[in-house]
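Build the 3D complex.
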Amino acid sequence: MAVAVDVVVLTLAPDGGDDGVPPLTPLVLAVRRDRDPFAGNWALPGGHVGLGEGLEAAVCRVLGEAGGQPAPGPRLTAPRHLEQLATFGAPGRDPRGRVVSVSYLALLPAPPPVAAGAAWHPALDPPALAFDHRDIVAAAVARLRSKLTYSTVAYGLLGEEFTLSDLQAVYEAVQARPLDKRNFRRKVLALGLLEETGEQRRGSHRPAQLYRFPPGLVVFDDVIA
Amino acid sequence: MAVAVDVVVLTLAPDGGDDGVPPLTPLVLAVRRDRDPFAGNWALPGGHVGLGEGLEAAVCRVLGEAGGQPAPGPRLTAPRHLEQLATFGAPGRDPRGRVVSVSYLALLPAPPPVAAGAAWHPALDPPALAFDHRDIVAAAVARLRSKLTYSTVAYGLLGEEFTLSDLQAVYEAVQARPLDKRNFRRKVLALGLLEETGEQRRGSHRPAQLYRFPPGLVVFDDVIA
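Done.
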């Protein structure tokens, strides 16, 4: 039996920006397969785990292989957030034989350069993907949507400092629906988790307060007890 | 490389009931190993996954092996809630060679009969366990504690119908701390998820309203958006 890791790398990028459409769209990274099975198809970055290799070490290796030329900004090998997603082990998922895939979810605030043969695709409507990778992407999107409602996981899709409008744009993009601005701000601030940086962002609009999240993933634990 | 499943079966049972101590205590199922490595030690119910066997099929097989004589009440092979917990794959976790363990969390409302060689132990302070199984139990308890704060997962530790006192006892037992009764009831009812059954439980105390959860796991999604 073989064990592989597959990584769902999610990020956000500006979309066309039609009226009423959220200004960001979720993207997922895929690589073109150069051999069978599924030669020529898109697949998640992934690979078999070496006999003495840890699971997260294999994830780092795979992300390194999919990364492009170093450039300023986010790097594929240094996601803002990385978590184990789920393990997919249906007996028939790989035509070559039994391969159990441990999948991971990696979040980045913007798409970094990627290797030749890798590309970003719409995460909510991905192209045909090899193996059961479409199910894995769907599980990642479901996990992210759910986790946004009870944790600070949005930090993975934001820079260190952000405005409440930036934060709302992350929620709207992942949930693919507009949110009421006043209601969103009231609920987010009521959590008591956002720290004001003391700085403001100035631009074409009026100055907006900058915030940051506390370090690490925080679960909103005041809902019941 | 080998792939195994290991199952953390958690349930609740009345404890001594000293003043101020929650009236229920979390228990975890362990089986005595009859061969090396760790012969004679306690371990989670688990086993290698067969080449053509699905992961959840392996979980069912393992639970069947750990189950006791059929009796009225909960059955080990029919947990109220079952979810994949995490996959543990550190290269040195099994002295025999590389074994990647896909762990599951199973919840039952009360401890059913178990096979000879299996026994229930305190989940918050388990005995020495083989391999990295103590870490797996800790991960299960952490997942359950966290999930109680943002979902209806408590249904896995309750019967179909329950009073608010029953529900509070589940939260107190898993979180190992007393909760304010009035505050707990207010927050739980404010979620708008509990359905009144229309029946009451009568006993030595005054009659108490019975509730049920909606089917399946529901995440409290009104926290932010």
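The beta strands of chain B are 2-14, 24-32, 42-43, 46-48, 81-88, 99-107, 118-122, 195-201, 208-212.
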